[in-house]
Amino acid sequence: MALLVRWCQRHRWLVVTVWVTSLVGALAMAGHAGPRFSVELAGHDAESQQALDTAASFMPSGTVPDLETVVVRARSGTVQVPAVRARIAEMVAQLGTVPGVAGAFDPFSPAAALPIGGSPLSADGQAAIVSVLMKGSPTAPDHTAVRALIDTARAYDGPDLQVEVNGPGATIIVQSGISLWPVALAVGIALLVLGLMVRAPAAVAVCMLVALVAAGMATAAAMLLSLRADLNQLAPLLTLVLAFGMTLGSSVVIVNRTQNQLRAGLDPPQAARAALRHPGRATAIGGLALAGVMLATSALRLSVFDGLALAGFTAAMASVLAVMTLLPAALRLTGHGLLVWTERTLLRRSGTGLPVRPGLRSWWAGMVARHPQVLAGVAIVALAVLAMPVTGLTLGGGDNGADPTSNTTRRGYDLISEAYFPGLNGPMLAVVTGLHTGAPDPLPGVIQALNDAPGVTRAFLSLRNDAAGGALVQILPDDGPRAPGATELVHRLRDQVVPAAIAGKGLTVRISGQAALFADMSSRFAAVLPGFLALEFGMLGLTTLFALRSVRHSLAVMTASLLALAATLGAITWVFTEGHLAARLGVRPGPVEPFLLGIIMIVVFGLAIGMHLTMLSSLHAAADDPDQRRAISSRHADVGHIVVTTSLIMVIVFAALAAQPVRVMKLLGVGLSVGVVLDALVVRILLLPALLHLLRPGRGTDESSGSGHGGHGLRVFRSGTSDTGPVGGRVGAGRAAGGGRSGGGRDGGNSGRHRVAAAERLNTHTGPTGPFGSGGPGGPGGRGIVTADGPSPRAGSRRSRPAADPGSAASTGPWTVPPPSATGRFRSSPTTTMPAMRQSGGPGHARPSTTTSAATTGELRRSSRHGRRSR
C-alpha cells in the first residue's frame, strides 16, 4: 500500500484527472442508458411474484395494469346533489384527457362497478370512488402521468368536495418525494461540525470532495450495473449513503492524522504517508471485508439482501479506491493548507505546530482505564435493555395508513376505510391456471370458496383468458394490508381454502397482492437472516483476528457488535412496532419492512467495520509498551474524538431522512441514526476500550503491583506509528551539563532555556486527572514524563537518537529527562506529545548527552520556572 500511496502522490494531477474524468463519463453513460432497477421485493421464486408474472402473461400488453383510485366525498349532503355530481362528472372528463390515462370510470355509470366488484358509492351516499386505469404497471408506473393525475384530481378539491388520490402509482410518487429543507439544514450543520473538527477550510474541502466523488462514482456504477444484474430500486440510496459515509469517515481520520504529523514538523508527503499507514490499512481491510460479504450474499442468492448486495459491493470498492488513490493525491496537492494560518505561521517559525489540547476526551479515556469492569458492565446492560423489545419485532409491510396526514394517499386511505372498509385499500389477487374449455368449469367453485373464506368481504372474477387457460380473481379482504388479519388471511387461503377448493380439479391457484408480497418477503427474510448475520460477523471476526492476532479480541468485538445490532433492532421495534414515539414522528405503528432492515444492517455494518479496525489497531499498538494501561488510554483519547465527530456527522445526515414526511424514510433515518450512535458512543468509545483493558496481558499482575498508581518511574510510550498521538515527537536527551549551545553560537545561554520553555508551553497539557494526578506514573505527587511517540525520524538524522535506559535519563532527542529518582517539576500528560526541537549541526553546537547530571536537572528546573514566568 505504501508504494501505491507514493505513486499517487508523485502523479497527483494524473490521479485527480482520471477520477474526475471517470466520474463525468460514468454519470453520462448511466444517464444516457437509463437504469433498470428491479421491483421484485420477494424474489423470483416467491408465490406472490410468480402470480404477478403469470397475470402479466394474460394481458395483451404483457403487464398488469395500474389501477389508481380517486375518492371523493361531499363535505355537506351527498354526492347525488346536482352541483356536486356535476363537479364530479367534470373531473372525470378531465382525468380522461391526462396523458398516460387509459380511461376513467364515472362512479354513476354501471361500468364503474367492474374494477371493485360492487357499487362505487358508499352506503351513506357521501362518498364515491373513481377508478382510473393507467397505461403503466403498478410496479413500474409512469411517474409523469401519475403526477399529472394527482394534480388534476386535487384541483377539484374545494369547499363542497374533498378529493384524494390513492393507489400503487400515487404511493410511489408520494413516498419518493423528498423535502429539501431538512437536507439543506443537515448539510449545513454537518459542514459546521466538520469545520470545527479539522478547522482548516482546505481540510473540510478535501474530506467532502473525496466523499462526494466516491459516492457519485458508486451511484453511477450501480446504475450501470443494473443493466446487467438485478438490483433493487432502493440500491441507489444504499450506494449513495454507504459510499459517502465510509469515505467521509476514513477521510476525516486520515486528514486529522495528517494535520498532526504536519504539526510535528514533517513535510506534507511524509505526513500523508504516515497518516495513511494504519487508518488507510484499516479502511482497505474493512472495505474489502464488506465487499466480500456482499459478494457472498449475492452468490448465495440470499433473498431480500440479494438485490442490495451488489450495490453494497459497489459502494465498498468505490470507497476503498478513493481513499487509497484520490485522498493521497488531494493531501499532496493541499500540503500545508490543511492547517490554519496561525499554525502554518508557527510551523514556519519554530518548526513545530500548535498541539491540540485533549480536554474531556483525555479525562474519559482515563476513566475507562480506571474502571473498565464497571463501564463495560454498564455498556452491556444498556445494550441488553435496548435489545429487549426486539422479541416483539413484527415483519411485514406498511401501507398508506401509516403515513402522515399531510399526504393525499394517507387521507385517501382513511376516507376509503371510513366510507367503505379497510380491505378495499389492499385488494388481493388469485391467479388461476389450468382451465380447459369443454370440461365442467371449476372456476365458479373456486370463486365461491374464496367468498366463503373468513376474512374476505367479497371475491369476483376480474379477467378470464381461455386461450391462455387462466383467470384473475380479485379478493377484497376485511382488513387493510398493514393489519395482522391480512397476513393471516394470506396464510389461510394458501394453506386451507385454496387446496380444498382445487383438490382433484387440475388447477393451480397462486395468491398475490400487497399483503401477500410482504408476507413472502418477511418469511424469506427470517429464513436468510441467520446466514447473512453469519457472513457479517464471521467476516468481522476474521478481519479483527487478522489485524490484532488475538482470538479473544475477535470474539469480544463480534459479541459487542451483535449486541449493538440487537439494540438497534430493539429501538426500531419500540418506536415503529410498539408505537411509543410514533405519534411524535407523525406515523402509526405497524410492521417493519424487511428490505429496510436489510439496508440498515448493511449500512451500519459497512460504516462500523472500518472504524472498528481503525480504533482497535490504534489501541492494540500499545501491546508492546511497558505500561499498556496508560498507552491504551493515550491512544483512546487520541482517536476517540475523531470517532465521535465522524459519527455525529453521519447522524446529522440520517436525521434529514427521519425528518422526511413518509414513514419509510422516517424508519430508515431513525434506524441508521440509532445504529451509528450505538456503534460509536457505546461500542467504540466505551465497550471496546474497556474490553481491551480487561483483556490486556498481565493486567492482574499490574494491578496487584500497583503499576501506574504507585512508585516513581519514567513512562515513555513508543510505537513509531502515526496513530499514537496528536503530535509526533520524542522525549529525548537534553544538552550536556551547562549545555545549550556554546556562548559563541547563535543561540547560546538563556536562548536555549527559552526554547525549552517554549516547547513546554506548547506541549504540557492536563491529563485525565490533572498533570499525572493520581493516575500518573508517580502516583500522587509523582514525577516523570509521559508522551506518545510520533513518527520515527529518518535514520541518520539528528533527530534519531538511541532510546534511553528507563533507569537513567532518556536520550532519544534534544530533551534531557530526569531519572526516576529526580524530583524535577517538569510534567506532561498521558495524551501529550512533544515534537522534537530542530537542531542544526555546526561548530557552535553541543552534542546531546546520553547521561544526566545535576546541572542538566537544574537546567530543566530553571527552564520550567522561566516558562511559567513567560506565560
Could you write a compact summary of the structure shown?
This protein has 871 residues and is α+β, with helices and mostly antiparallel strands. It contains 26 helices and 8 strands. The longest helix is centred in the middle third of the chain and has 35 residues, at 514-548.
Helix content: 55-70%
Sheet of most strands: 4 strands, antiparallel
Helix run count: 26
Secondary structure category: alpha+beta
Number of strands: 8
Give the overall shape, derived from the CA principal axes.
elongated
Distance between the termini: 45 Å
What attributes characterize this protein structure?
26 helices; 871 residues; 56% helix; 8 strands; disordered C terminus
Your description of this structure?
This protein has 871 residues and is α+β, with helices and mostly antiparallel strands. It contains 26 helices and eight strands. The strands form two sheets. It has a four-stranded antiparallel β-sheet, with helices on both faces. Helix 2 (12-33) packs antiparallel against helix 11 (306-334). The chain is elongated, with a radius of gyration of 34 Å. The two termini are 45 Å apart. Mean pLDDT is 77; it is low at 704-871.
